[in-house]
């Protein structure tokens, strides 16, 4: 069983549509793939409808969170699986974060324009199509201007990595864990040691989150060194959490491939068994696939 529990589509900052994503997952010989777009469930229906025979879909999302107890607060990502996508409180929280992302993108465009870089918000919004807007869409505008060759280059410190990076209003991470659990979902801390994305939170916070109902830690991720993977696994064992592995696939916006890191089948079974908000999806026999 090959299980990849973290992938993005055009519903956020991936480059494959949800239907293309599940087709690519089957082509990558995955048995299970999770669709985890940033702050949205918009890709679930299309991914489910396009499921190839033999592939199981874990509907999910990656929530933009922040630990507000420190100054300045530290941003972090929470993977949420198999929650009820109609849970009113969670739906409202996701909408709020998406709106905060739009405001931030507008302000980033203003900063760029103030420095004489002629990008527009309409253009950036257009790269996100109808999906959750993020810095990779601003990156597309910079690439069009010849200011970066690739998305990764656009994340250099003098561009979106630091200079034009603005904070957005994220969900309080403890609130987010509660919302996911109240919606019957399972929460896993995404790439908790990804230091090259910025500051990471101390293990003490992870212990507090475990006490608050966090289910797992993403240990195997391309942004973690072998030492960081081992540390996260050890911490998970210590705190009674599961340890997952996943690609965080973003299509052409990143170089990582589907299935680059995978999750142990037993861990996947534990996640699926713990969730009560939504079922894993399989293709319906008799439909075209
Ligand atoms: P945002 O959520 O708008 O702050 O943008 C963060 C997103 O940008 C992440 O989810 C990744 O998809 C992407 N990203 C972050 N760092 C890099 C990088 N160095 N190269 C390519 N994409 C990146
Ligand atoms: Fe992303
Ligand atoms: Fe992430
Ligand atoms: Zn991700």
What does this structure look like?
The chain has 289 residues and is α/β, with parallel strands linked by helices. The protein has two domains: 3-95 and 168-282, TIM Barrel, CATH 3.20.20; 105-161, DNA polymerase, domain 1 (Orthogonal Bundle), CATH 1.10.150.650. Helices cover 39% and strands 16% of the residues. It contains eleven helices and nine strands. Strands 1, 2, 3, 4, 5, 6, 7, 8 and 9 form a nine-stranded mixed sheet that branches. β7, α10 (226-239) and β8 form a beta-alpha-beta unit. α4 packs across α5. The radius of gyration is 18 Å and the shape is globular. It starts with a strand and ends in a 7-residue tail after the last strand. The chain binds adenosine monophosphate, fe (iii) ion (2 copies) and zinc ion (ZN). Adenosine monophosphate (AMP) binds at residues 13, 38, 134-136, 151-152, 155, 197, 250, 253-254.
């Amino acid at each position: 069983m090959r299980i990849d529990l973290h992938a993005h589509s055009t519903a956020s900052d991936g480059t494959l549509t949800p239907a293309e994503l599940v087709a690519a997952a089957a082509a990558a010989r995955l048995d299970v793939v999770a669709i985890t777009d940033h702050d949205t469930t918009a890709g679930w229906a299309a991914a489910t409808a396009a499921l190839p025979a033999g592939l199981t879909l874990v509907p999910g999302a990656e929530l933009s969170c922040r630990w507000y107890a420190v100054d300045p607060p530290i941003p972090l990502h929470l993977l949420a699986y198999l929650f009820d996508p109609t849970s009113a409180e969670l739906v409202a929280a996701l909408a709020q974060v998406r709106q905060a992302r739009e405001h931030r993108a507008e302000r980033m465009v203003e900063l760029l324009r103030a420095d004489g870089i002629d990008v527009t918000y309409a253009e950036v919004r257009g790269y996100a199509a109808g999906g959750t807007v993020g810095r990779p869409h601003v990156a597309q505008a910079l690439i069009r201007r010849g200011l970066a060759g690739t998305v990764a280059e656009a994340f250099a410190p003098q561009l979106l990595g630091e200079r034009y990076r603005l904070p957005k209003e994220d969900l309080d991470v403890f609130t987010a864990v509660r919302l996911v659990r109240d919606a019957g979902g399972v929460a896993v801390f995404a790439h908790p040691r990804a230091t090259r994305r910025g500051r990471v939170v101390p293990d003490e916070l992870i212990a507090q989150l475990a006490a608050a109902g966090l289910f797992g830690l993403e240990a195997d991720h391309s942004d973690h060194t072998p030492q960081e993977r081992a540390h996260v696994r050890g911490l998970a064992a210590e705190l009674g959490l599961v340890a997952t592995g996943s690609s965080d696939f973003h299509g052409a916006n990143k170089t990582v491939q589907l299935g680059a890191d995978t999750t142990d089948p037993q861990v996947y079974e534990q996640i699926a068994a713990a969730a009560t908000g939504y079922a894993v999806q399989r293709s319906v026999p008799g439909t075209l696939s």
